[in-house]
What we know:
By secondary structure, chain A is of the alpha+beta class. In chain A, 35% of the residues lie in helices and 24% in strands. The first copy, chain A, folds into 2 domains: 2-141, CATH 3.30.1330.10; 157-319, PurM-like C-terminal domain (Phosphoribosyl-aminoimidazole Synthetase, Chain A, domain 2).
Amino acid sequence: MAGERRLITALSRIFGPPPPRVLCGIGDDTAILAVEPEQELLWTIDALIEGVHFDLRYTPLRSLGWKSLAVNLSDIAAMGGEPQYALLALGWPPTRDLDQALELAQGMQDAAEEYGVTVIGGDTVAAPAGLTLSLTVIGQVRPGLALRRDGAQVGDEIYVTGPLGLAAAGLEVLRGGVELPKDRQDTVTAAFLRPRPQIAAGRLLAGQRLATAAIDLSDGVASDLEQVCLRSGVGAVLTMASLPIPQPVQEVASCLGLDPQDLALKGGEDYQLLFTVNPGKRAVLHLAFARAGLPAPTGIGSIVAGAGIRLRGAKGEQEIAGTGFDHFPDGGLRGD
Amino acid sequence: MAGERRLITALSRIFGPPPPRVLCGIGDDTAILAVEPEQELLWTIDALIEGVHFDLRYTPLRSLGWKSLAVNLSDIAAMGGEPQYALLALGWPPTRDLDQALELAQGMQDAAEEYGVTVIGGDTVAAPAGLTLSLTVIGQVRPGLALRRDGAQVGDEIYVTGPLGLAAAGLEVLRGGVELPKDRQDTVTAAFLRPRPQIAAGRLLAGQRLATAAIDLSDGVASDLEQVCLRSGVGAVLTMASLPIPQPVQEVASCLGLDPQDLALKGGEDYQLLFTVNPGKRAVLHLAFARAGLPAPTGIGSIVAGAGIRLRGAKGEQEIAGTGFDHFPDGGLRGD
């Protein structure tokens, strides 16, 4: 057990001691948590697989560690919760130096410290066919305040917490298809490699009951807004001119001969929040974000009766739903 | 998203609707749980990777589903807890028929129903390099009653809840190295393919404060008892003659020219509980197990001062610790 045990010891050193309400962390069969009274528990798991979710040719391990925790925290943010603890199941290729696993862990710890989370345990196994990471995160929210996907109402305005398409532009730059001036290059690659979960915005929206529905932008606005629409039984209209598409995204799109709104709406991985708000709360919303020192959210459209998502531009309207990333595009099930 | 969404819909049909305290299961960014007051939360994650933890040449997918949940429930059993909910992160090879994913899910649901657990959500991703499964399970235990690894005291007796070596013998049979008469063949292969987490025994030990320490036998007695000894700062002496090694394990060992106690102590995957008990509680222990209708636990040795694990046999004593499965046997970390 020497190799595995040394790895676990090194990992626990990076992740630090568990906080007081974690009665038992690394080193037993399970973790033991003393749950705070009068809170609901938020609980999520995400798997990241080498060659599918990340490419180590352009993803430094420390960034991968950050991102793997950040995308889980983003799920908690999308519910309006406060993330607390994480467990890590690390599948590590035995041919890869174990020291590199510590770089990965350090990146995870960077994000954990930034967002007040503790990695309290997990499982380490050999994964000869490539690095795999599963993280499960627990958070909490006051009863009844969680931001679900199914509450959007006809007439609600649709907002996003920040710019769209930066991560998709960053991925294009990292893949080597495009070059930008250094500062803009850094902006887009950081958006892809080190996404920032919108925890403060989520907690504000939930705590002040500002949003009727929310989701985080992992697959892209087209696909993620579609989830909200399907769950809420509504449709949506987006206004092309209102989409917050920053200059570097325009530049990358122009280099690649793409429509910038394709990067913005279908690129995914921005990890901003998309949420819906009753129009009567517009002023309160902007005041609350300003008071909290958060960037003003951008209205990008409205919820309408019916189904589907239309994008309204200079040349009229087009359908855009159903075009996000599908892990099993051809995967029919028998008897469908 | 059609393929992925159809898969998720089919999975939710198999796993059934969430129980009332699960306020939100499959279909949102996270699950929402209403935690029961005055309970501590037990929380675990395990990753299973094709080619490392299982071989689909001799493991039916439905058995793999059962086992993947059962080994997580075994961690909750080893803490003396009641398992409640599971989240599944499924990495599925896109070349493999999605219908087979439903067989896997059905096996998981078989175990979930058997042990009163609900699979309430998760994540489905493509995994081209091979099937990967991560499961995270939550359970609960009354405050202060969890069975930890670090409480074994010098003089305590060491018990196991059931036979040793059956799973290791089953693995040899499945790999095709050995043949046994049908009934005994079925016994050992079922022990390997469909392990039974000892939840009732764990809850009894915790509820009546019978054990000073406990662990589940995943890596084998040698390695798992070593964990208890290391965490408790003690050593152990086992008595060879007292090891519960059933007839089929003897037969498989004899076919392979092995010592049967090697299968029993180092084979792993039996998922029985190993626990330590103050000798003054011996009678109470046996009475409690009998009253609960559980098989009598078997005493296999005692906790002693010092470190290490010795096996006492006809030919004297030998050291046996430190010989369990290591995922990273050669994995030195720089600066060790």
